[in-house]
């Protein structure tokens, strides 16, 4: 099959490309970074250098493909995240329609349908194609962005942005705390990008008669349990994940000079996580859990932590 992978050589797209190449498929990887061209070629894939904001480029790249994996890279420089996500989703839909692509796998988030203005899944509804919407939990790899603050280089109240899928956190490096307006004993589904890549590779080869939704997770636990696993791996077993009020979180984001509309969206995302509704939907779908546990990832995290 001829398959198009978006997302450059990111945490999902790189292992996905490796899986598909290993299966003998012809893979083209879209990247906005020309410096990634050689690395893409080394994997055995064809690089397509361009931006998903360019509908003509997308249409040309998608034409003739049997399947497309479509994801939207996040931009936290955009003051209106909802508008940005919708514009990019519309670009995809326009290009996919023009290219007459018949199999599409769209990356979403496990709480995306619960956030007002954030659910762009319906932008693909009018396409005459077989579509799967992927709804993964909170990525293990989000913790990498916490390394400096866990080491104690941050300050109390300094904010660290993680992912729109829900894991936005505050870390106070001096006290070893994770904070957010979800956390503490809230139960969350965490997921390895490798398990997501496995699930996407399976879906790309299927052809469903209607749009389907697939939830993806690797392990379910409380936020404090996750913090303890990560903390223990780096010699800080006391690491906690403190639950803030929505008001305190909003005030903190504004202090960090996050644009007001974006800050409100982020608080709403975390509030949805705290509500437990994403977990209810996840359980209702009865997905098969992936193989990579947080303790496995914590070993990789600890290596990166100590090398930095």
Q: Can you put this structure into words, describing what you see?
A:
Residues 7-127 form the NAD(P)-binding domain. InterPro entries: Ergot_Alk_Oxidoreductase, NAD(P)-bd_dom, NAD(P)-bd_dom_sf. Helix 4 (81-99) links the parallel strand 4 and strand 5. The protein has helices at residues 13-22, 37-42, 55-62, 81-99, 147-150, 193-204, 223-233, 246-255, 260-275, 277-285, 294-307, and strands spanning 2-5, 26-31, 46-49, 67-70, 103-107, 130-136, 138-139, 159-160, 169-172, 177-180, 187-191, 212-216, 219-222, 240-243. By secondary structure, the chain is α/β, with parallel strands linked by helices. The strands form three sheets. Strands 3-2-1-4-5-6-12 form a seven-stranded parallel β-sheet. It has a four-stranded mixed β-sheet with strand order 8-9-10-14, with helices on both faces. It has a three-stranded mixed β-sheet with strand order 7-11-13. It has two domains: 2-138 and 192-216, NAD(P)-binding Rossmann-like Domain (Rossmann fold, 3-Layer(aba) Sandwich), CATH 3.40.50; 140-188 and 219-284 and 291-307, UDP-galactose 4-epimerase, domain 1. 47% of the residues are buried. Residues 153-176 have low confidence and may be disordered. The longest helix is centred in the N-terminal third of the chain and has 19 residues, at 81-99. It is built from eleven helices and 14 strands. It is globular and about 55 Å long.
């Amino acid at each position: 099959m001829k398959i198009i992978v978006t997302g450059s050589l990111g945490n999902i797209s790189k292992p996905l490309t490796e899986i598909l190449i290993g299966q003998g498929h012809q893979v083209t990887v879209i990247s906005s970074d020309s410096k990634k061209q050689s690395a893409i070629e080394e994997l055995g894939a064809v690089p397509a250098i361009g931006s998903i904001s360019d509908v003509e480029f997308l249409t040309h790249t998608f034409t003739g493909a049997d399947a497309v994996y479509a994801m939207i890279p996040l931009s936290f420089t955009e003051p209106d995240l909802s508008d940005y996500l919708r514009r990019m989703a519309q670009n995809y839909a326009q290009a996919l329609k023009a290219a007459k692509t018949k199999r599409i796998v769209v990356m979403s988030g496990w709480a995306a349908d619960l956030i007002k203005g954030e659910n762009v899944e319906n932008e693909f509804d009018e396409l005459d194609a077989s579509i799967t919407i992927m709804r993964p939990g909170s990525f293990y790899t989000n913790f990498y962005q916490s390394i400096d603050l866990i080491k104690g280089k941050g300050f109390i109240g300094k904010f660290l942005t993680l992912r729109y899928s829900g894991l936005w956190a505050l870390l106070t490096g001096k006290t070893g705390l994770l904070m957010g307006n979800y956390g503490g004993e809230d139960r969350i589904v965490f997921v390895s990008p490798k398990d997501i890549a496995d699930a996407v590779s399976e879906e790309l080869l299927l052809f469903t008669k209607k749009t389907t939704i697939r939830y993806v997770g690797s392990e379910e636990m409380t936020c404090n349990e996750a913090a303890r696993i990560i903390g223990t791996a780096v010699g800080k077993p006391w690491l906690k994940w403190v639950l803030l009020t929505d008001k305190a979180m909003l005030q903190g984001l504004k202090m960090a000079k996050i644009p007001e509309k974006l800050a409100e969206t982020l608080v709403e995302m975390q509030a949805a996580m705290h509500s437990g509704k994403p977990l209810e939907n996840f359980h209702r779908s009865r997905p098969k859990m992936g193989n990579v546990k947080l303790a496995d990832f914590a070993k990789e995290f600890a290596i990166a932590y100590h090398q930095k």
